[in-house]
Write a structure and sequence with these properties.
Blueprint: E1 11-12, E2 19-20, E3 26-27, E4 30-34, E5 37-41, E6 44-45, H1 47-67
Antiparallel strand pairs: 1-2, 3-6, 4-5
This protein binds zinc ion.
């Protein structure tokens, strides 16, 4: 029996492919348009990539704030 919510298997970082031991350091957010719908995925990320993605998201947020 499979449970999609079970994180027992080892994970690989979605960005760089590094094996993640234990809990992923973070998750990215991918949004794919599918016709009239949106498919949202939250792939696991290793600590390095989670940090990079977090920095990017924060930089984007700051830019948006400045644009007002
Ligand atoms: Zn990575």
């Amino acid at each position: 029996m499979r449970d999609d919510d079970d994180d027992g298997d080892e994970l690989a970082c979605h960005a760089c492919g590094a094996t993640i031991e234990g809990e992923p350091a973070g998750r990215g957010i991918l949004v794919f348009p599918r016709g009239d719908d949106l498919y949202v995925d939250e792939p696991p990320l290793c600590s390095r990539c989670a940090l990079a993605v977090g920095m990017t998201a924060m930089a984007r947020w700051i830019e948006e704030e400045e644009e007002g």
